Amino acid sequence: MARYLKAELIDVVETVDSFGQVAGIMLVGAEEWGDKALPIVIGAAETLSIKKGLGEVDFPRPLSHDLLAEILEALGATVEKVTIDALVASTYTATVYVKDREGKIHTFDARPSDAVALAVRVNAPIYVADNLEKYAEDIRKYIPPPEGKVTED
């Protein structure tokens, strides 16, 4: 059984995929990994949704993740946590844990981008399976260091 580490969404970096379409790279890291993070390629819509959930962009209408968060709240359910679980056939898997009003926990298979987009809206913790560290990369590959900061290579 996998061990999970408390994770954080480090950033969502906009990029262009191999088909020339706008996409994003979601960087999820754990304190234990130091300057490394999982680079998870996500779509343009999910990139926008996560950035909106973080308050980095504004959008005039609710997005799907906003709607889901509102529905859960209206039903008295809460997102307890989300986990990024595995890499299966080049695709990351995730789980959303929802507690209903009676206190029962329900688990839902999800794409990591959807799980994180929901988590940032409801301030739910994110966890990552520690065995995914082998796929983590140096975040400086995706995020340049702040101006004037010297990095060691």
Automatic annotation (TrEMBL):
Gene3D superfamilies: Bifunctional nuclease domain. Coiled coil: none annotated. InterPro entries: BFN_sf (IPR036104), Bi_nuclease_dom (IPR003729). Signal peptide: none annotated. PROSITE patterns: BFN. It comes from the Archaea. One of its GO terms (molecular function) is nuclease activity. Residues 4-140 form the BFN domain. This is BFN domain-containing protein. It comes from Pyrobaculum calidifontis (strain DSM 21063 / JCM 11548 / VA1).
